[in-house]
Amino acid sequence: MRIDVLSIFPEYLEPLKLSLIGKAVTDGLLQLQVTDPRAFATDRHRTVDDTPYGGGAGMVMKPEPWAQALESVVRAAAQDAALAEPPAAPGAPPAGGSTALAAHEVAESAMSGLGSPQVPTDDAAARALPGQAAAPGRAASSRPVLVVPSPAGEVFTQDVAYELAAEEHLVFACGRYEGIDERFLDWARGEVRVRPLSLGDYVLNGGEVAVLAMVEAVTRLIPGVIGNPESLTEESHTGGLLEYPVYTKPAAWRDREVPETLLSGHHGRIARWRRDQQLVRTARRRPDMVLALDPAHLDRADLAL
Ligand code: 6GU
């Protein structure tokens, strides 16, 4: 997967070099780049913001540096993809000149507008187009997803994280101040798939901290990023219930004992105890999640609780 982050405060994204995400980059599972739209500002002061039309507090980010930053990362990704293309089989018709030219052409096609008939607008269309099926073992290439972190976005959930983890190229556009000029997003919808996403119902100063959270939630779902994939299946928000409490040695600590069921060695009783803990904890802390549970996923013992 390739992830580009567009931010006028690139230092905010430094933590992405650490820990599991840093290792995923080193291991070649993830390509991660941060681009500063200020690099595309043309005036002497490299201005990226201005006062809002219609008045009001704060500043609005100017659209052009963001458009150029987006174009540059989409083009770079398409060029990388074209360079990774295996050489044509001997005897096959020439693919249109040098590799560099082919890369350029792919980049142009990736940036062409929604109206262009040869560019599918989504994955389903990409797969449905006859004669354009992806080679076996390769994901169908589709337009990048532009994630726009915003308290006005759709809520970012574990389901959204799974959807994004299946993408080839994600671009995050971190607005600051009062946001980016809406025309940037209108234009971007003709180039990429745009997805405004919010972490929850509170306001941050900008998208950078939200991007740290989203990139971590997404990249840990990429196969190979987490050492033990079983840890993905048991955790909160998969299965609709919160996680059960956990304990380790010593069995007694400051007059507190580990629940005896966990010491019993009886796998059936332990599984039941953990499930009950999940249900009680979820009912107390997140009644909204209990109401959303699929009754088909509840067993008799759940209902007896
Ligand atoms: Cl994604 N961005 C900002 N600026 N504030 C937020 C948010 C995102 N999610 C919750 N609050």
TrEMBL record:
Catalytic activity entry: guanosine(37) in tRNA + S-adenosyl-L-methionine = N(1)-methylguanosine(37) in tRNA + S-adenosyl-L-homocysteine + H(+)
Q: Where in the cell is it found?
A: Cytoplasm
- Annotated tRNA methyltransferase TRMD/TRM10-type domain residues: 1-78, 140-290
Judged by the first EC level, this protein's enzyme class is: transferase
Its chief place of residence is cytoplasm
Q: Which GO terms describe its molecular function?
A: tRNA (guanine(37)-N1)-methyltransferase activity
What is this enzyme's EC? 2.1.1.228
Cross-referenced Gene3D superfamilies: 3.40.1280.10, tRNA(m1g37)methyltransferase, domain 2
**Cellular component, GO annotation:** cytosol
| Superkingdom | Bacteria
**Which InterPro entries does the annotation name?**
Alpha/beta_knot_MTases, tRNA_m1G_MeTrfase_C_sf, tRNA_m1G_MeTrfase_TrmD, tRNA_m1G_MTases_N, tRNA_MeTrfase_TRMD/TRM10
- GO:BP terms for this protein? tRNA N1-guanine methylation
Alphabetic keyword roster: Cytoplasm, Methyltransferase, S-adenosyl-L-methionine, Transferase, tRNA processing
Q: Which residues bind S-adenosyl-L-methionine?
A: G175, L199, G200, D201, Y202, V203, L204
Purpose of the protein: Specifically methylates guanosine-37 in various tRNAs.
State the oligomer form and interacting partners.
Answer: Homodimer.
- Entry's family note: Belongs to the RNA methyltransferase TrmD family.
Read off the PANTHER family from this record.
Answer: TRNA (GUANINE-N(1)-)-METHYLTRANSFERASE
Recorded protein name is tRNA (guanine-N(1)-)-methyltransferase
